[in-house]
UniProtKB/TrEMBL annotation:
Any one Pfam family match given in the protein's UniProt record, by short name: Aminotran_5
Gene3D superfamilies: Aspartate Aminotransferase, domain 1, Type I PLP-dependent aspartate aminotransferase-like (Major domain)
Superkingdom, natural source: Bacteria
Name used for this protein in its record: Cysteine desulfurase-like protein
Keywords, sorted A to Z: Pyridoxal phosphate
Domain Aminotransferase class V: from-to ranges: 25-403
Length: 421
C-alpha cells in the first residue's frame, strides 16, 4: 500500500502554518509531536460539553466518567494490556515515575540493589537515584555498547545478583535512537527475581508496544510524543500493582487504577488521549485493516515504519557526506530496524547550538543540547553543556523536508567553518 502522506498531513493543522510566508519543518518530534485536528476537537468538546468532576449523578459528571473510562481502555488497546485497570494516567512520564518509585520504595530496604542504564532519559534515572539515596540502596550502572549502540544481555547478566530488586530500562534512546532488545533483557532480569520498569517514551511513536509479549512489570510512555496531549501513561502488571500501597489521600479510592491517580484527573486531556489512539486506528483502517482497534493500531505501525525508515536512511546518508560530522547512533542500513528515526550528531569544532540557531532561523525546528540524555553524553565524552544536534522524524514528515533540511545542514556548517577560518 502507498502511504497516503498528503491525506495524513491534512489531518494536522500545524503542518500548514507559515511564518511571514515561510513554511515550517517540524523535526523536533522527539521532544513532542504535533496533534491531529481530531485530538484538539476532542479536548474542546470535552471542556464544552462534559466539564465536571467525577462521582456525581448528573449528566455531565456521568459523561466525564465515560471519558475517563474510554481513555483507559484506549491505552489498554494501544499497549496490549489485559485490562484498563492496569493503565495509570497522570501528568507526565517523570511525575508518574517519581510516584511509582516512591511506592516501590516501600517494598525495599537498605542494601537492596537497583540497576539503571546509562542509555536512558533522566526521567527514568533521577527518580531511582534519589530513592536509592533516601533508602540506602545500591545503584549498579548498566552501560550500553558503543559498537552496537544497545544494552547487551551479557552486560546486564553480569550486574544482577540476589539483591537486585529493580531494573530500569529504556526501549529506545531519545538521543541515539537505538532500540534495546527489551524482551530478552526483561527475561534475564525477571529470572533473577527483579522487577523491570521500561521507559517506552521514544519507542511508542514509532513501534507497536506489546506489554504482555515483553514480559516486563511496568512500562511508561508520553501521549504528546505520539500525537496526543501532554500526559503520561504508566502500565503496571495487574498482579504487581494490586499488591502495592501508593502514597495517596486517606479517603480516596483504593480501587485500580484510581489509587495511583492522584487528585482530579485531566479529563479533557483524556478525551484527547483517546482521540490520539483512534488516530492510529484510523490510519490502520485506511491501510486495509478491518479488525479490532488493537489490530488497526498494529497495522498503522506496520505502514508508518515502512514510511519512516527510508526517510531516516535518507537523512543518515546525507549527513554522512559531511566531513568532520559524527552521527552518534546506528548508521548501518542493514540495522535500520534497530533504531527509531531520531538522529543526533556533532561536528568537529562547531558548537551544536550555533548550527541549530541558524536552522531554526530558517524555520527548521530541531534541538541541540543533552536533551536529558545525561548519562549518554557522559559515557560518550560529549560536553553536556553543548550536547548534540538532534533531528527527529515523525510519519508526517516528507522526503522533500528531509532534503531541504540536509541542504541547510550542509550550508550552515560550511558557513560556520568559513567564519571560523
Amino acid at each position: 500500500m502507498t502511504f497516503q502522506i498528503d491525506a495524513l498531513r491534512g489531518k494536522f493543522p500545524a503542518l500548514a502554518l507559515t511564518d511571514k510566508g515561510r513554511r515550517r519543518i517540524y523535526l523536533d518530534n522527539p521532544a513532542g509531536t504535533q496533534v491531529p485536528q481530531a485530538v484538539a476537537d476532542a479536548v474542546s468538546r470535552c471542556l464544552l460539553t462534559t466539564n465536571a468532576n467525577l462521582g456525581g449523578f448528573f449528566e455531565t459528571t456521568i459523561a466525564a466518567q465515560a471519558v475517563v473510562d474510554e481513555a483507559h481502555q484506549a491505552m489498554a488497546d494501544f499497549l496490549g494490556a489485559k485490562s484498563p485497570e492496569e493503565i495509570i494516567i497522570g501528568a507526565n512520564m517523570t511525575t508518574l515515575t517519581y510516584h511509582m518509585s516512591r511506592t516501590l520504595g516501600r517494598t525495599m530496604k537498605p542494601g537492596d540493589e537497583i540497576i539503571l542504564t546509562r542509555m536512558d532519559h533522566e526521567g527514568n534515572v533521577s527518580p531511582w537515584l534519589q530513592l536509592a539515596e533516601d533508602l540506602g540502596l545500591v545503584v549498579r550502572w548498566l552501560s550500553f555498547d558503543e559498537k552496537t549502540w544497545q544494552v547487551e544481555e551479557a552486560t546486564l547478566a553480569g550486574l544482577l545478583s540476589e539483591k537486585t530488586r529493580l531494573v530500569a530500562l529504556n526501549y529506545a534512546s531519545n538521543l541515539t535512537g537505538s532500540i534495546n532488545r527489551v524482551k530478552a533483557l526483561t527475561a534475564i532480569a525477571r529470572k533473577a527475581g527483579a522487577l523491570v520498569y521500561v521507559d517506552a517514551v521514544q519507542f511508542a511513536p514509532h513501534g507497536l508496544v506489546d506489554v504482555q509479549e515483553l514480559g516486563c512489570d511496568f512500562l511508561i510512555c508520553s501521549a504528546y510524543k505520539f500525537f496526543g496531549p501532554h500526559m503520561g501513561i504508566l502500565w503496571g502488571r495487574l498482579d504487581v500493582i494490586d499488591g502495592l500501597k501508593p502514597y495517596k489521600c486517606r479517603c480516596s479510592s483504593n480501587g485500580l487504577p484510581e489509587r495511583f491517580e492522584l487528585g482530579t484527573p485531566q479529563i479533557e486531556l483524556m478525551a484527547g488521549l483517546t482521540a490520539a489512539v483512534d488516530y492510529f486506528a484510523d490510519l490502520g483502517a485506511a491501510a486495509g485493516e478491518g479488525g479490532s482497534r488493537r489490530q488497526k493500531i498494529a497495522k498503522a505501525f506496520e505502514v508508518s515504519i515502512a514510511y519512516e525508515n527510508p526517510l531516516a536512511q535518507r537523512l543518515i546518508d546525507g549527513l554522512s557526506d559531511i566531513s568532520g560530522l559524527t552521527i552518534h547512533g546506528i548508521t548501518d542500513r542493514k540495522r535500520l530496524g534497530d533504531r527509531v528515526p531520531t538522529v543526533s550528531f556533532t561536528v568537529e569544532g562547531i558548537v551544536p547550538e550555533t548550527i541549530v540557531r541558524q536552522m531554526n532561523a530558517e524555520n527548521i525546528f530541531l534541538w541541540s543540547g543533552h536533551n536529558y540524555a545525561w548519562e549518554i553524553v557522559h559515557q560518550l565524552g560529549i560536553p553536556a553543556e553543548h550536547g548534540v544536534v538532534r533531528i527527529g522524524i515523525a510519519h508526517y514528515n516528507t522526503a522533500s523536508e528531509i532534503d531541504e533540511t540536509l541542504e541547510s545542514v550542509h550550508r550552515v556548517i560550511a558557513m560556520l567553518r568559513q567564519q571560523r577560518s
